[in-house]
Write a structure and sequence with these properties.
Layout lengths: L13 H4 L9 E9 L2 E5 L4 E5 L2 H4 L8 E4 L5 E4 L5 E5 L7 E6 L3 E7 L6 H13 L3 E7 L8 H8 L6 E4 L5 H4 L11 E5 L6 H9 L23 E4 L5 E4 L12 H7 L1 H7 L16 H8 L4 H18 L2 H25 L5
Parallel strand pairs: 8-9, 8-11, 9-10, 11-13
Antiparallel strand pairs: 1-2, 1-4, 2-3, 4-5, 6-7, 12-13
Helix pairs in contact: 3-7, 7-8
Length: 347
């Protein structure tokens, strides 16, 4: 951060200004780092570390958020977001984990090796669309293969107009193609699995240095390097949010965004004879007709339905999930009891 950073440099928009009362004594600040019980924020021309009160902690503040701060300084309010990246946290609690807020562009980072995975890219694209961020697929380690053309073609075919760049993340000259999304006041986030070169790309984009890890020879996967989320200044005035590697990023409430990622499937579904068509063997199913005609890849449909199912499951509230599990448990016990009865009560 620099003492000369204005709110506009930090990414302030009219959307946020509209939420601030004209005569308010509260100061807008952007959340640059999130720690346990504390956040680092940037004001208009200065920065501060703020301990979070119980009330502020309950606001669900994440890196990239805009908050209003009093003279304490204490966080008095978190402003509504333009968008937010989130996922269901690991474990069985069903808690939602916030990743980053108010991101303009998402660099979806993969690499020209065995990490490249079309289904994973589709998952990341759905998350980008849901958060209102412009997605750019960045294929790193292009210098390790004779040609990255096949990787670029595979990624480009996932969505109409999707921008894809293949490069060596260590080369400032090659990374320069990403400059249009790194200008003053712009916020970029990186998303990708471990070992694809996110830390290396961060180093090149920001001119700073953070430790990178070697890729394991057995499966070409890397070890986690980044362990916290923070905003880094880029030379052209933009801000980059680095996020920990996430190998299993689950979808949460992104149903509409899936239609943006799979527009051809969504369009065909609207042409089916029945509105509740399951796209299996129903008469008048436009999707099955397209598959038979060879105009729709059945694998695209399979991945679309898999992500739909995952999104529905993860978007359930904890109460809904427990109720469903109880109902399934009762049905299972009922079926077992019936079978035992048929066998004369024998287990």
């Amino acid at each position: 951060m620099s003492a000369s950073d204005s709110l506009q440099n930090l990414g302030w928009r009219s959307f946020f200004q509209a939420q601030v009362e004209l005569n308010s004594d509260l100061r807008p600040a952007r959340v640059m780092n999130v720690h346990r019980g504390r956040i680092d924020v940037a004001f208009d021309g200065e920065s501060a570390a703020i301990d979070l009160s119980a009330k502020a902690a309950a606001m669900g503040i994440t890196v990239g958020d805009w908050v209003l701060v009093d003279d304490g300084p204490q966080v008095a309010q978190r402003l509504d977001r333009i968008g937010v990246f989130q996922r269901r946290a690991a474990g069985t609690t069903g808690d939602i984990q916030l990743i980053a807020a108010n991101v303009d562009t998402l660099f979806i980072v993969t690499s020209a090796n065995r990490d490249f995975n079309v289904a994973r890219l589709e998952r990341y694209l759905a998350i980008a669309h849901d958060a209102g961020a412009f997605p750019v697929v960045v294929i790193t380690k292009a210098d390790t293969v004779d040609s990255a053309d096949d990787y670029v073609a595979a990624a480009s075919g996932l969505s109409p107009g999707l921008l894809v760049e293949a490069l060596d993340a260590r080369s400032a000259e090659q990374v320069g193609v990403l400059k249009p999304w790194c200008e003053e006041g712009q916020t970029v986030a990186l998303l990708g699995s471990s070992g694809v070169g996110k830390s290396t790309l961060t180093n090149t984009l920001t001119g700073h240095h953070q430790v990178t890890s070697e890729v394991r020879d057995d499966d070409q996967r890397g070890r986690h390097t980044t362990t916290s989320r923070s905003m880094h200044r880029m030379p052209h005035g933009g801000w980059l949010i680095d996020t920990p590697g996430m190998r299993e990023l689950q979808l949460v409430d992104v149903g509409d965004a899936l239609d943006d990622v799979f527009p051809e499937v969504a369009a065909l579904a609207g042409m089916c004879r029945f509105t509740d068509c399951a796209h299996e063997a129903e008469p008048g199913c436009a999707i099955q007709a397209a598959i038979a005609a060879g105009t729709l890849d059945p694998e695209r449909l399979r991945r679309y339905r898999k992500l739909q199912s995952e999104d529905r499951r993860n978007s359930e509230s904890i109460a809904e999930r427990r109720s469903r599990d109880r109902s399934l448990g009762k049905m299972y016990k009922s079926v077992l009891a019936g079978k035992r009865s048929e066998k004369g009560g024998k287990p």
